[in-house]
User: What shape does this take?
Amino acid sequence: MPTYPVLMHTALDATDVRGLAEFYRELLGLRYRPGDAPPTDGSPDDEDWLVLVDADGNRKLAFQEVATLARSTWPSDDVPKQMHLDFRVPTVDELHRHRQRAETLGATLLLDRTEDSAEPLFVLADPAGHPFCILVGSE
Assistant: This one.
């Protein structure tokens, strides 16, 4: 039986990663994944990627730092919404297989980061241009 990528979480771009993560943590009753909680020793919080999980440890939302971010003008199309989906697969072989499947379905490759041994990934754009990531990862 074929395997398919698993949606890990929805990732939101933010200029203040901690601030946006705190908003959703409080709003949704989520918690930080281990290692992502704010520092308690007074050291600077220079995180550029944070993940929130539910009570069972399942990923729900992630936050990625960007230098600038124009506020969405939705429902106007002048400045669209800013988020992307992350999908995980268990192995590098599956990563390559699913890149090929995605491209066959109409995706285009935006970034190949498969040489990164810590987290090999592809960033692709769906047929409408929305970016999404397929990466080797665990829950």
Summary: Residues 41 and 128 are 45 Å apart (CA to CA). The mean pLDDT is 91. The first helix runs from residue 17 to 28.
